[in-house]
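> tool_call: predict_assembly(chains=two)
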Amino acid sequence: MIRMQDITKVYPMGNRDLTVLRGINLNIAQGELVAIMGPSGSGKSTLLNLIGCLDILTSGSYYLDDREVSRLSSGELAAIRAHKIGFVFQTFNLLPRLSALANVELGLRYAGGSDRKRAMEALAKVGLSDRANHRPTELSGGEQQRVAIARALVKNPPLILADEPTGNLDSHSGAEVISILTSLHAEQGITLLTITHDTNIAHHCQRIIHLKDGQVVSEERV
Amino acid sequence: MKKWLEPFSTAWVGVATHKLRSFLTILGIVIGVAAVIALMSIGRGAEAQIISNIESMGSGLVTISPGARTFGGVKSAVNTLTMEDGEAIAGQIDNISAISSSYSSSLQLVVGAQNMRAQVSGVTPEYMSVNNLELADGTFFAEYDYQRGVKVVVLGSNVKETLFGDTNPIGQQIRMGKIIVRVIGILESKGAMWGSSDDAIYVPLTAMQQTVAQPRTAQGERVVSSISLTVSDEEQADYVVTEITSLLRTRHQLGPNVDDDFNIMSMEELAETVSEAIGTMTLLLGAIAAISLLVGGIGVMNIMLVSVLERTREIGIRKALGARERDIWTQFLIEAAFLTFAGGIIGVIVGWAVSYMVSATGFITTLVTADIVILAVSVSVGIGLFFGFYPAWNASHLNPIEALRSE
């Protein structure tokens, strides 16, 4: 599903360039559950942003579903994000003014149009049907992250990218979030990539990729 | 929800979240639109009022009055227009349905203990129809009275009020200079305008001659104060004016380099001139009011820029969810246009209310016309689109990763 060859990413920083990724080669098959680990500054988030078509790589080639995406226009990238990719962020990134249900509906907004019924179903999958009309501020951290997961999965994307989804949660809520993500993977065959610092979580995955200084230093199969 | 409605509901949420701020943002637009509506309505109202006054005097009316004749910079007496001029016009110019001459003089009037000096006009019987006068009571004098110099008088409504108050004046007698005249008619009030017939006193010109000697020119022609006539076809008014001018110049033996020794004015022309002048005035007022619309627009742009900055993270989230630049751009543009549209609508209501209140004071009638309303609302939406363009463009070109990282 994901094929990356010799990916580099350089951020221009005044007159000095900051090289974040130095030659990443990565293949991820459909339906895999992969953890990305590494110290901060190792380029995990940058890699995830590149995979998620939020950012454009500096050199190398990236095939998503056999389509070379590194040369696509911003509009085409947006279309890929809208239809193929669901994001789950460490900081949830819900819109504070909207209810949980409206936040989930927003996940469909750019992928063909809002649909209240599908949004309700997605909320039910994360066990929050009774919280549909609550604002994010009225929900606990774990609940907010579950709303964010519902928003990511409501459009049935083949790929979900999670950037430290449990980073801001206590261990109990974190475990809940992980069990939802892993069961989604198990039931629907969604390809799931998650960045994590937590080795326990990483060991729920099928494969762990270790990054350091912008390079893949090791891979292990669980 | 319908797909095309979604941007509008998003815009509504954006506006409704900050109610006070949104209200203050559109206040400039509200005031601008209200000012445009109120001022334009006053201008249009004044125009309509003056035009209708002019028309009540007869839109086919042409009046000729004597003017100073100049010889080498020296102005002569103004006794230049004569009864014979009027007869010549009646005889030689086409398209005239009625013509009347009048000679005015200031005379002492006495009724019982009431004593006043007033301008009395001796007129020919056609005067009433030419000047579109209407009677409230009694009759106007006829050709028969005119031929025989019968001593009768028709009073304007103000004069009747002054001399007789609430008593019925018909049949009453007035001493007028050396003669005594009998009141036979009262004119309908026409409202305030220059030379209003409300203040007029009309007697047959032949009766007038019995108390005032009508001056004569060197050629022995009888001097008049004015000649008025109606054209049978208003379209021909300009042509008739030209014809009369050349006829009178010939009769008065004016050389090619000499100015007219009379003034000729058609109501048609006057109405055009007045309405043009007021139209210009109205436009000027509207333009001044429009400046406040512009200022309001700048306020909207300012708030939209702040709003984009404040919602950077939201923009990042939307982009991560697959929003294209166009989606973000239209979202903010619609929000700006929605704000100014609402401002325009509220402004129309406020402006309308102001115009209604101005009308209610009775000084001036105002007129809110559909074109002003449509113009004001569409201009305010246009302002939203214009001043929202840059903030919306800014928002749409944010880098999604940086936007997501912002606080």
